[in-house]
Amino acid sequence: MGPPPIVTGLSPNEGAPGTLIKIRGENLGKSPQDLIGLTICGVDCLLAAEWKSENKILAISGPIKGKGDVIVTTQSGGVGSCNVTFKGFHIATIGPMKESAVWVEETEPYSWGRYSLSPSSYQQEDPLGLSVEDTEKKVPEEDLLTYFPNKNGDITSHNFSARWFLLENHQATSFNDLQAGLVHLRRKVQGQKEGQLSFLKANIGAVMDQVDTLVNLKERYEIDLPKVGNEPTLKLEKAIKESEHEARKLFDEVLSRKDRAEKTRNALNVLSRFRFLFCLPCVIDRNVKKGDYDIVINDYIRVKNLFCKTDVPIFKTALNEVEKRITELQIKLHEDLQTMPITVEQQKRLIRYLVNLDAPFDSAWDAIKSRSDYINKKFKLIYNYHKSLDKPDPKTKNGSASKYSKYNKTPNVDITIIPACVNFTDEICISITETFPDLWKVGQAYFSGELQVKVEAGRQVEYKHIVMNVIENFCKFVRASLIPNSLDKGERGQFGSLTLPERDEIALYLPELLHSVRTAYVTLIRLDLPNEALDIVSLLLLDLRIHCMSIMFQQTTEQIKQLTETWKINYNGKFTGVTELPIQFLNLIEGMIQIVKESVLSTELREVGLLENQMAQKEMEKQLNNILTAFHNVLNNLSSSEDYDECENGVVSQLIGTPVSSHKTGSKSNIPIWEHRLLITLSNCLFTKGTVLDMVAEKFQQGGFPSLNTPLNNAKVLLEHLEKSILDKYLEQKSDPLVGTIEPSMYLGRFDWHLTIPPSDIRPYIKECINNLINVHSEIIHISPSLLNAVLPQVVETVAEELFRLMSCVQKFSREGAVQARADISVLQDFLSGYSTEKASNYFQEALDVVPPLDRTDAILVEDILRQCTARMKIQVLCLKRKK
Amino acid sequence: MSKKPTVQPALHKVIMVGSGGVGKSALTLQFMYDEFVEDYEPTKADSYRKKILLDGEEVQIDILDTAGQEDYAAIRDNYFRSGEGFLCIFSITEDESFQATQEFREQILRVKNDDNIPFLLVGNKCDLEEKRKVSFQEAQDRANKWGVPYVETSAKTREHVDKVFYDLMREIRARKKEENKTSNGRGKDKNKKKKLKCCIL
Fold first, then answer.
1. A666 shares a domain with A641
2. Mean pLDDT, residues B41-65 taken together
């Protein structure tokens, strides 16, 4: 609401009714329509007000008397205020005979004075003395008219019908009341008859006046009689006749003048009409040249109305000339109508012209047909153009790339080459977005009668066919260019065969293309097309989305396949021994989910949720399986590629001083790397299984995908298998040499258990064994401490088993030998206690059992050795202590 | 205005006088609405009123734009009675209008019966210097004789338009303050005396 109006100036500030007043002020309305009220001294003067500007209104004062404010009311500012006053005055009283600029309420021209016998007051009373109620049930007047023709219920009328009156006024009155009313009426009639005298008495004043007037009249008449004679009216009549004659004389002259003027005008009209006819061919030519078809049509209709029934040969010739021009014009317009491109408005206008010219064409229908032909032709044209560009030689395919300039940043695609099918799809989408709405609009206009053309029967079906055909063509072209396998062979031939680019290449464009198709789809939806037509596109979109998703997944699979291991261990974080590989894998999947979610998964207007579709879901599961399998394969390859690289960095064998067989040395120089790799892969496996897959599942869930447990669980199982095989491989790699060295070392230096060498310390093979274990331990710790529990106990177990085997193979123990063996085993058992499983302890126990029992002194000796040894090898013990 | 409950700012009533066609209405409309009206249309009597800031004080100016034509001379007395200050306007391009100011001055003094009534002599149309008929000195001399200021204005270029109105209002305001003082003091006595005189009459 703006500021209220305020009147600050009046010119003039006083005046009689009808004075033109300039009202000045502020905010007196923004437009004539804004001004909704104007009162001058309380009198509404809006009707005579003329809004000039926000500061000025012209008004004409009404019947005002006295001083008062001028109040302006506007829609935008409400009721205003006034600073100045207007003073109205009557110059003279305004009566019925006086002209006035304003409507003045007439005072009653005659008053009844004291002889009030107003007929209206008499009327209002019911003759039966009953209260007149508004009866709800009224007999319709039509019925009354048929019951009592030529009668009515007006009590003062000649044709008064009592029955009508009763039906009209007392339909609901009871019989008793009516009886009472009758009595009342009788009494009143009686009273009137009896009371003529009393009536006279009551109205004595009036009666006396009348008598006086009559007497007066008579006296005057008698006075006048000698002056004017017996027949005063004769003289009057004569005067009237005379004046009538005079008047007629005056008027005749005027009339004859008027007649003459009329005749001249008629003649002029006829002339101009002829001129119009004969000039018309030229005029038509000129106007056609100027494009003023409206004027031509107007002229044509006029000439037809004027001359179509003429028999005059020259007129006919002229008319023929006109007809010839018009026919030419019709043909020209009809051609224009079918010349594409043309806007709907232009077409409509042309159709209107043709209709107005009574053209023999079915112009509206032709317009529709030409439009649909145009669209189809344009599709073909676009196709052909791109087909011509679609050459295997990439150098011819540049140009038209500007639109995809944003892809220039993608490094692995040649920027100048955009696959022909991409350009084609994009262009065809734009084409349908641009052209189809016009076809639809023209069609709608045609069927809604806007074009003022009679719709022929069967056209609805045909039109629908046309529309469907266009949309189907569009869809098939898109399918042929992007997902040819969704078409059968015949159609594939019909709708062309642009070369499909490589998957990686098309993957870049697919989301964009999907967007283009969607845009086209939205345009179609906005047109309110029948569902049948929309469903075709909807199906295409669904297929396209599935395809797109599939391609995305495939691309990711491919990328995963190409993942390489850097072997750089990531030491931070909870998971040790993990390289970037799983994270890369996760990132790839995440990126894919993002793209898929953005482009494919999101459902737009009138689209089915992709994952509600069975086929899509199955396809996705399959593709996810592929991805996971691919990753599994990557890990598998890493763990099995023994000959990965032959890097010979000087990792020194810890089995120093051990005579090792030649083939072992050869492989051993590589083992640390290979073993490390195994360990790393193993920890990656664990990490993937335990964490990354869950994260993947979570990402999918966040991305709005349905639960994908089956493929994930499959992958977990696969990974578990892989883990096991890697572990086995590693153990094999580690424990085989470790265990293998025990026996040769045991019998090193021609040692035998039946020799009587007094034992002073544990034998070196035990130390070697312990050192080897420490070596393995450190290796694992180096890569991934979390693997210790999985690996070390297994190694210990094999060591124990080997020890037991060796012991049980000993044929004879000397007393010293027994002491030595017991000390050896005990030390080993003690040292490895941190990692020994039940099975390992059993083996140790069994090994001990093989050794002959000792007497007391020997037992003390064993304990002595044990204590010494533990003290000496404190560091080693610490190494193998299990951390809590 | 009396029906409004809020305290109204001081109201100064200004009356525009002068011969017909000297530009009384033009000056008024220029002052009120910043508008210059080209076409001439004789005024009967127009009222204008608006709030303005006079030296930081909000006051209301009420302008009565009167008819210059002789036809209306008879009703001037009535108008003049209500005026608190007068702008007596002539056109510097028309000597006759300048001569007429003398008559207006006399009539005002007679009606108001007050030699010190706020009054400005205004020479309008000063943009038409080439058509000047009344010299500045001539007009200034007359103003000096009357003891009033003389200002030359142009309703067309708005030169001095605000000045004449504001100057006059300042005079009216000063005058009213003075009267208040006197009415507080011996003013009452004066009234009483007057009343007494009336009684005797």
1. yes
2. 90
Question: By CA distance, what is A6's nearest residue in B?
Answer: B50
Nearby residues of B6 by Cβ (< 8 Å), 6 or more positions away: none
CB contact under 8 A, B44 and A55: no
Whether residue B48 and residue A10 make contact (CB cut-off 8 A), yes or no, is: yes
More confident residue, A664 or A207: A207
A20 within 8 A of A48, measured Cβ to Cβ: no
* Contact in structure between A722 and A632 (CB atoms under 8 Å): yes
The answer as to whether A201 is a domain residue is no
Interface test with B, best of A84, A85, A86 (most B CBs within 10 A): A84
Is residue B138 very low, low, confident or very high in pLDDT (cuts 50, 70, 90)? very high
Instruction: State how beta strands A20-26 and A6-11 pair.
Output: antiparallel
ipTM of the complex: 0.80
User: Mean per-residue pLDDT for A510-528?
Assistant: 78
Residues A649 and A729 both lie in one domain: yes
CA B176 to chain centre: 15
Q: How confident is the model at residue A491 (pLDDT cuts 50, 70, 90)?
A: low
Q: Is residue A702 part of a domain?
A: yes
Asked if A10 and B46 come within 8 Å (Cβ–Cβ), the reply is yes
Partner A contacted by B57 (CB < 8 A): no
Residues A37 and A52 in one domain: yes
Q: Closest by alpha carbon to A328, among A284, A367, A363?
A: A284
Please state, as a whole number, how many other Cβ atoms lie within 10 Å of the Cβ of residue A414: 12
Domains of chain A: total: 4
Distance CA A845, CA A800 (A): 9
Q: Taking an 8 Å Cβ-Cβ cutoff, which residues of chain A contact chain B?
A: 8-15, 22, 24, 55, 83-85
Domains and CATH numbers, chain B: 10-177 (3.40.50.300)
Residues β-bridged to residue A81: A6
For the whole model, what pTM was predicted? 0.47
CA atoms of A404 and A415, how far apart (whole Å): 9
What's the rounded Cα separation, in Å, for the pair A882 and A833? Answer: 9
Residues A610 and A516 in one domain: no
- pLDDT the model gives residue A316: 81
CB contact residues (below 8 A), chain B span 26-45, against chain A: 29, 32-33, 35, 43-45
In this prediction, residue B26 carries a pLDDT of: 93
Per residue in A335-357, pLDDT (tens digit) is 887 777 777 788 788 887 887 77
Quote the pLDDT of residue B31.
Answer: 92
In a domain, A627, yes or no: yes
Q: pLDDT tens across A658-683, in order?
A: 333 333 333 333 334 666 777 777 77
pLDDT tens sequence across A56-87: 899 888 877 788 888 998 888 888 888 888 88
Chain B positions touching A83 (Cβ under 8 A) are 1, 48-50, 60, 62
Amino acid symbol at B20: G
CA nearest A532: which of A476, A487, A473, A472? A472
Cα dihedral A333, A336, A338, A340 in deg (nearest 10)? -160
Cβ burial of A613 (10 Å; 0-12, 13-18, 19+) is middle
| pLDDT on residue A663 | 37
For residue A74, give its domain range: 1-123
Question: Which of A689, A719, A737 is a domain's end point?
Answer: A737
Is it the case that residue A227 has pLDDT exceeding 80? no
Distance from CA of A106 to the nearest CA of B (A): 29
A711 shares its domain with A663: yes
Question: Are A719 and A861 in a shared domain?
Answer: no
Final residue of a structural domain among A123, A151, A184: A123
Q: Taking CB atoms and an 8 Å cutoff, what residues of chain A touch B29?
A: 9, 24
Angstroms from A95 CA to nearest CA on chain B: 27
Read off the pLDDT of each residue in A850-870 and give the average, rounded to a whole number.
Answer: 79
Q: Does the structure show a pLDDT above 60 at B187?
A: no
Count the Cβ atoms, other than its own, within 10 Å of residue A629.
18
